[in-house]
Design a protein that fits this description.
The chain is α+β, with helices and mostly antiparallel strands. It has one domain (about 5-120): Trna Endonuclease, Chain: A, domain 1. Helix content is about 30%, strand content about 40%. The chain has a 5-stranded mixed beta sheet with strand order 1-2-3-4-5. Strand 4 and strand 5 (about 110-120) form a beta hairpin.
Length: about 120
């Protein structure tokens, strides 16, 4: 795939993810939150918990499951970005990290939500 095709494929995955999360009762407050040192695909409320969601979309699982791309380096970047986002709150709410994976089988998307996928990485408030 070209870079443009890859970007469009990822955007389609994030749109599917947002729709899926809304159906699950999540209230989305941010998509593609970016700072110089990282990005969070989706930030949403799940009742009283603020959830930082990493979306991984793959054409298939032939080589690996999508969540396997969330390695220690990615977790550190997500943690740092989430901590930056949380600084805007006077009272920091309960928060967690979810990973939402999308892959295709026979042309149809398979979506899996991994709640509370990991803890903050080596960071202290």
């Amino acid at each position: 795939m070209t870079e443009k095709q890859t970007r469009l494929f990822g955007q389609k995955g994030e749109e599917l993810a947002a729709d899926f999360l809304k159906k699950k009762g999540y209230r989305i407050v941010e998509q593609n939150f970016r700072v110089s040192f990282g990005e969070i695909d989706i930030i949403a409320w799940d009742r009283e918990t603020l959830v930082f969601i990493e979306v991984k979309t793959r054409k298939s699982i032939r080589y690996a499951m999508p969540f396997e791309a969330v390695n220690s380096h990615k977790i550190k970047k997500l943690s740092d970005t989430a901590l930056f986002y949380l600084k805007k709150f006077k009272n920091i709410p309960p928060a967690r990290f979810d990973v939402l994976t999308i892959y295709y089988e026979s042309g149809k998307p398979c979506i899996e939500l991994i709640r509370d996928a990991f803890e903050l990485s080596n960071t202290v408030f």
